[in-house]
Design the sequence.
């Protein structure tokens, strides 16, 4: 069965069989028992790339509470407003455990949703959630880098970049002319209440609007929500952010004992069109 994947070795289209993916030049990629495929270029060590396992687990637990559903809904609204077709190829570049990938699939059931991430533990979780779904309802996941997307040039209608680095040149390569790049990033007040609980001095996030060669910024949406969190949810939220790894050991320990916490979720969604 033909897929949207291309071979990371030669660039030919990959065919999917029951247990593997194969290109015309006989490059073979085994399908993991969970259903994902490792298409990271040979130079990449996927096992040691991406987020740590505990961070992935914390993010999955937190997102499953629905606390960031407002962001998922806003991403879907932006795709809808941009006129993305119901049978479009949509890529989630840096998909993590696949939460936003699945949310978009629910809103666009006829679309082809593919998520890629170098964190094998996250991709494993994402693929496992799809295992018992009918083929038409599935999202597809691969271990691959956002700077080496395993998709043909000018094949995708949209690329999502949610709290991930933006590989603008690679996104430009895979998007069709007029295709949409959605970039979700923290607003200045994002998690300010949480930071107040953990740091002596809480700082607002700096808001930037970068320009990307070959793209035009066509819109921006702010999404804000007040979060009332249990101690467990607050600890998971902190553990899934970059703040956790940048903090001292003492702050990390304190985050496990936060108790009930009120904080603001403040997101910016920037909409770019490929020229």
Sequence:
């Amino acid at each position: 069965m033909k897929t949207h994947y291309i071979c990371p070795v030669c660039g030919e289209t990959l065919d999917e069989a029951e247990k593997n993916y194969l290109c015309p030049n006989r490059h073979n990629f085994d399908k993991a028992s969970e259903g994902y495929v490792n298409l990271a270029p040979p130079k990449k060590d996927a096992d040691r790339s991406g987020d740590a396992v505990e961070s992935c687990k914390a993010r999955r637990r937190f997102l499953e509470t629905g606390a960031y559903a407002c962001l998922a809904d806003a991403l879907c609204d932006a795709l809808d407003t941009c006129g993305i077709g119901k049978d479009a190829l949509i890529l989630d570049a840096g998909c993590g455990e696949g939460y936003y990938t699945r949310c978009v699939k629910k809103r666009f059931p006829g679309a082809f949703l593919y998520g890629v991430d170098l964190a094998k533990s996250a991709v494993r979780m994402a693929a496992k959630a799809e295992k018992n779904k009918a083929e038409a309802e599935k999202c597809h996941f691969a271990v691959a880098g956002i700077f080496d997307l395993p998709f043909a040039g000018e094949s995708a209608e949209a690329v999502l970049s949610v709290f991930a680095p933006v590989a603008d040149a690679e996104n430009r390569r895979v998007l069709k002319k007029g295709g949409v790049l959605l970039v979700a990033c923290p607003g200045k007040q994002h998690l300010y209440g949480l930071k107040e609980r953990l740091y002596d001095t809480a700082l607002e996030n700096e808001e930037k609007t970068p320009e990307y060669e070959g793209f035009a910024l066509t819109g921006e949406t702010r999404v804000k929500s007040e979060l009332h969190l249990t101690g467990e949810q607050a600890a998971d939220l902190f553990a899934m952010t970059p703040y956790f790894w940048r903090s001292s050991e003492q702050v990390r320990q304190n985050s496990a004992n936060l108790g009930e916490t009120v904080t603001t979720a403040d997101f910016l969604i920037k909409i770019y069109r490929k020229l």
Remarks:
- The chain has two domains: 1-31, 34-189+208-223+266-274.
- The chain has a mean pLDDT of 93.
